[in-house]
Amino acid sequence: MIAFAHAKVCLTAFVGSHVAGVSRDLLTEHFLTLSDEGRFQRFLRRMDTEAIDAHVEHLLADAHALIIASQSNRIRGLAELYISLQEPSAEVGLSVLERHQGQGIGTSMTTMLIRIAEHARCTALSAVTLMENSAARALLKNLGFRQRGSGEECHATLLMQHSDDSRVPN
User: Fold this and answer.
1) Where are the beta strands (DSSP E) in the chain?
2) Residues pairing with 15 in the sheet
3) How crowded is residue 101: how many other Cβ atoms within 10 Å of its Cβ?
4) What is the total count of domains within the chain?
5) Can you tell me whether residue 101 is helix, strand or coil?
6) Residue 107 structural domain
7) What is the pLDDT of residues 35-92, one digit of tens each?
8) CATH number of the domain encompassing residue 142
9) pLDDT tens-digit profile of 141-154?
10) Which of 28, 31, 35, 52 is the most buried (most CB within 10 A)?
């Protein structure tokens, strides 16, 4: 676990086996606190309580890294990283409570995930958002993601470049 202070929140990174130790109830509460539109923007579909419970189980079992932005013991934002070891590439999932958006929290969390993906030697990092989600698209563009649209969805990819001196020791 690694913690960093951001202007108004504490960013905590859980990597590898530490993800499984995160409170299931806190994660579920975060996703349920999102508005219906916020959940739709995060998951690209409507999510009821049962679907959120299933996602939290998947997150705790399969996420390689989890960044939590918290304030007063409440989650304000959450960033998930799923690494496919076959490629190796990774996918990012991001949600910030509406009233906390526009404060740089999403950018800070995504930047942390980029660093984790670099250390994991990922060749590409991807994210999918709605074309209408201009804030998420701008965040990804500002971090170097290239975007292409297909219907209602925008697919964004960041190609990772590694120098010999950035290798993670075995």
Assistant:
1) 2-5, 10-15, 65-71, 74-84, 89-96, 124-130, 146-150, 153-159
2) 65
3) 17
4) 1
5) coil
6) 2-166
7) 999 999 999 999 999 999 999 999 999 999 999 999 988 999 999 999 998 888 999 9
8) 3.40.630.30
9) 999 999 998 789 99
10) 31
